[in-house]
Design a protein that fits this description.
Length: 183
């Protein structure tokens, strides 16, 4: 079901959705292990797709108290709203500041992004990085997964502490970046 919905969304908006199937359990498990180690209470997920990671964050990460979900593609967003009716689901990830205001929150402990930054302009990438950094608590974590090492330089410029995990068992082998904002 997830796979069919994802493929249909990809065919409608290939550059926005940027993958033909949802992320594998290997990526999801890798991220869940890390999240359960850092124990964030307030989390945002940017580019949730069909919700493979949302489902795991919601069900398998007991320390998360607030999970804000962002998905720009309308049919995927509707699917998320149906399945996760107890979570706030927003459209554009770039509206993070407004969403936090609406939730009565200022900053987050962890932001996780699957956004297809390969298709973003330099200006959008800079805006995204600055938005993410400024909305993390000191000591907060940023997790990003991607099919390339394109973001390594940007992330090194923004965060002091970065580690990269290669996950080969995915439709396209992926890199998961784990970054920490200094305290
Ligand atoms: C590579 S997919 C990842 C989906 C899912 N997280 C997964 O791992 O299977 C990227 C997702 O980001 C969404 N997206 C792209 N630009 C966005 C934006 N500006 N705001 C919110 N979501 C966006 C796409 O619609 C797509 O669902």
């Amino acid at each position: 079901m997830d796979k069919v919905l994802f493929l249909k969304s990809f065919l409608r908006s290939p550059l926005q959705v940027a993958s033909i199937i949802p992320s594998s359990p290997f990526i999801v498990n890798n991220i869940v292990r890390h999240v359960n180690k850092i124990k964030p209470a307030a989390v945002a997920e940017l580019g949730a797709g069909t919700g493979v990671l949302t489902r795991a964050l919601d069900g398998r990460c007991p320390d998360i108290q607030s999970l804000l979900v962002f998905e720009n593609e309308q049919s995927l967003k509707s699917h998320l709203e149906n399945e996760f009716s107890h979570l706030p689901v927003y459209a554009d990830a770039f509206s993070l500041a407004d969403a936090l205001k609406e939730q009565g929150m200022e900053k987050l402990d962890c932001i996780i992004s699957a956004l297809p930054v390969s298709w973003f302009s330099q200006k959008q990438i800079e805006e995204l990085m600055s938005m993410i950094y400024s909305h993390l608590h000191p000591g907060g974590s940023f997790i990003m997964f991607q099919f390339s090492l394109q973001m390594r330089k940007h992330l090194r410029q923004t965060f002091d502490d970065i580690s990269i995990k290669f996950v080969p068992f995915n439709f396209l082998p992926a890199f998961v970046y784990y970054c920490k904002k200094s305290v």
